[in-house]
Task: inverse folding
């Protein structure tokens, strides 16, 4: 297991955003994390990479308890994150953005090596011709790819991908899924938050479902998608949900 | 980021050194005095640029380090007859240490709160020195002219101070360039753009910011030591002059924030403008008004400053001018 989330609870004042959630991510696996809006998925990401400190519970990464470490310390251990709302470093060039990822991630590369890694990453994500452009001038799809390129340039052991497919057209989604499979085959573990159900079901090895901060189901994509509790959480009406899932598949 | 590296820094340093030699070769002491001031302003503006331009923290009261360096060095020379060059270095080190100490708490503040805190620190330091008798209190300290005998008289001392200031300015520019082109500089710029993202990618912002602040405090302290050595007199209002602080911010913005060459251009243009205005009987009283107007026009219409504007206008310059 590369990551174990054990009984993690996160509160904001009176609101319990994540309530005793537990799950594990296998090495070189893609874990799909799904749940309705407000289920606590992004909050859980924030706990894993140190932005929030859990009220209780433990997060163990490669055998080490990382609960309560600062974000940069967790990043240096090999956890990268692609944000849901893209956050490019606007005034820096596309290449510099990705170089930042390579420089300060797990491998702590020097500037020259990091630039080479960044160029490789831009080429594999089809952004090479934009490398000198300020990142703020990219369009949304390009910014999404940039966000992923920056996260991957750190050569992470675990990638937290927060809705990187949202807002992309079907071709772009297909391309992106190819990227995910490729990095998984390279041994990188991935946790994906995604609303595009068919895409997620397609690529995940294992799926965890959150609702109101609690884990309500987990298993293979097939097991989860036929779980009545999941269907109810999503759509309220199991019959409608069934139809939705069939269309999606 | 570019692989084709134009020899920007050597070219810039050689150019500055040639300019510095000009009044010596010409034997023009008043031009030398003017350039002494320009090189001092280049040092102040370039130093502020490291924390303001690269890191995104507007250090409004940055002149405090000029004052601290000036006072400590002056006191060492005045009370213990320490040689000027030694005193300058001995003053810049504690100034940098003070920057680290105050930087740790105040660099946690963001935006306007940081700027306000730096003003507060400058004002607090001025009040402290005004009431600190070993530093001469409100009257300050002044040299007996015999101090300059160690250096071969007042004239030779002036020359020594000039060379020292030129050296400090060149070192500041070299440091500014080295920071900008380094991995450390990249971490500063990442912090400037989005501190939370910087943290998530593995940068320790607290540490990087304090290091940047310390570097940006060291050179003004050297400049302060040199300025007041040459001046022969130091008093609190002159050492911790907030107006001078603001003027150096204007120079950075005017020349091009976040660029290496910008603060040099800004300092030179600003000082040249002030020189022309102050000697004009018609405009002498409007000098500061025009400086404010200039700032306003720059931030409204040429946000990138002169150097930034040139880089945008002529993309070919981008690989040559940093």
Result:
């Amino acid at each position: 297991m590369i990551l174990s989330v054990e009984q993690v609870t996160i509160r904001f004042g009176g609101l319990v955003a994540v309530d005793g959630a537990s799950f594990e991510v296998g090495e070189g696996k893609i874990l799909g994390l799904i749940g309705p809006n407000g289920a606590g998925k992004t909050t859980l990401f924030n706990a894993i990479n140190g932005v929030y400190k859990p009220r209780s519970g433990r997060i163990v990464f490669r055998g080490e308890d990382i609960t309560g470490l600062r974000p940069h310390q967790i990043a240096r251990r090999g956890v990268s994150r692609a944000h849901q709302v893209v956050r490019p470093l606007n005034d820096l060039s596309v290449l510099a953005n990705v170089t930042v990822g390579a420089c300060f991630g797990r491998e702590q590369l020097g500037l020259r090596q990091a630039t080479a890694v960044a160029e490789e990453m831009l080429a594999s994500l089809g952004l090479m011709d934009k490398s000198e452009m300020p990142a703020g001038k990219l369009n949304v799809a390009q910014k999404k790819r940039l966000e992923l390129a920056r996260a991957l340039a750190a050569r992470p052991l675990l990638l937290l991908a927060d809705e990187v497919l949202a807002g992309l057209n079907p071709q772009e989604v297909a391309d992106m899924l190819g990227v995910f499979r490729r990095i998984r085959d390279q041994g990188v573990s991935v946790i994906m938050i995604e609303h595009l159900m068919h895409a997620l079901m397609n690529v995940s090895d294992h799926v965890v479902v959150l609702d109101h901060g609690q884990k309500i189901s987990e298993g293979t994509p097939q097991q989860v998608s036929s779980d009545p509790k999941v269907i109810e959480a999503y759509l309220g009406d199991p019959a409608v949900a069934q139809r939705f899932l069939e269309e999606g598949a | 980021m570019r692989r084709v590296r134009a020899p920007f820094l050597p070219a810039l340093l050689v150019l500055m050194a040639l300019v510095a030699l000009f009044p010596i070769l010409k034997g023009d002491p008043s031009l030398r005095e003017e350039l002494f001031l320009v090189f001092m302003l280049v040092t102040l503006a370039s130093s502020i640029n490291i924390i303001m331009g690269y890191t995104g923290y507007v250090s409004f009261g940055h002149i405090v380090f000029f004052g601290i360096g000036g006072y400590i060095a002056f006191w060492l020379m005045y009370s213990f007859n320490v040689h000027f060059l030694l005193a300058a270095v001995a003053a810049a080190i504690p100034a940098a240490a003070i920057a680290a100490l105050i930087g740790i708490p105040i660099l946690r503040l963001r935006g306007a709160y940081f700027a306000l805190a730096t003003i507060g620190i400058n004002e607090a330091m001025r009040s402290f020195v005004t009431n600190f008798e070993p530093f001469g209190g409100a009257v300050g300290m002044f040299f007996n002219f015999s101090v300059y005998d160690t250096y071969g008289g007042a004239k030779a001392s002036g020359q020594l101070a000039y060379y020292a200031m030129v050296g400090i300015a060149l070192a500041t520019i070299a440091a500014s360039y080295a920071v900008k082109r380094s991995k450390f500089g990249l971490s500063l710029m990442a912090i400037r753009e989005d501190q939370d993202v910087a943290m998530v990618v593995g940068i320790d912002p607290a540490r990087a910011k304090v290091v940047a602040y310390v570097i940006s405090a060291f050179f003004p302290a050297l400049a302060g030591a040199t300025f007041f050595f040459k001046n022969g007199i130091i008093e609190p209002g002159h050492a911790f002059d907030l107006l001078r602080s603001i003027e150096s911010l204007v120079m950075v913005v005017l020349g091009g924030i976040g660029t290496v060459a910008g603060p040099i251009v800004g300092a030179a243009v600003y000082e040249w403008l002030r020189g022309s205005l102050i000697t004009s009987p018609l405009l002498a009283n409007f000098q500061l008004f025009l400086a404010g107007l200039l700032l306003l026009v720059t931030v409204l219409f040429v946000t990138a400053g002169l150097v930034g504007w040139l880089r945008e206008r002529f993309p070919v310059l981008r690989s040559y001018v940093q």
